[in-house]
Amino acid sequence: xxxxxxxxxxxxxxxxxxxxxxxxxxxxxxxxxxxxxxxxxxxxxxxxxxxxxxxxxxxxxxxxxxxxxxxxxxxxxxxxxxxxxxxxxxxxxxxxxxxxxxxxxxxxxxxxxxxxxxxxxxxxxxxxxxxxxxxxxxxxxx
Length: 142
What we know:
Residues 14-70 form the BHLH domain. This is Protein max. The protein is built from 3 helices and no strands. By secondary structure, the protein is an all-alpha fold. The protein starts with a helix and ends with a helix.
C-alpha cells in the first residue's frame, strides 16, 4: 500500500464523516422543527410528555386544521371590524347632522336674543358675537 492510497482512504473517510455529520444535523433540524410545530398547535401542546406522541403526519394534519381554523377566525374578525367601521361612520355622520341641527337651533336662539337685545337680526359683528356668547352660555349651562 502506498502513501497515496492511505491519503485517499483518509480523505474518503473524512468525506463520509463530514457527510454523515451534515445529514445528522439536517435530521436534528427537521426533528426540532416538528417539535416546535407540535408545540405551536394547541391540540398537540404537551404531547411531549404523553405516552403516545403524535406522528409527523398527525402533526402536519393538526397544524393544517389549526391554520384553516385561524384563517376562518381571522376572516370573521375582519368582517366584524368592517361592520363596526361602517357603523362608526354612520354614527359619526348622524352625530355631525345632529350637531349641525343643534348649532342651527342655537344660532336661531341667538338671533332671537339679538332681536330681543338689539331689535335687529342682521348678521353684524355685534349680533354674531352676542349669538356666540349665548351659545357658549347655553353649552355651559347644560
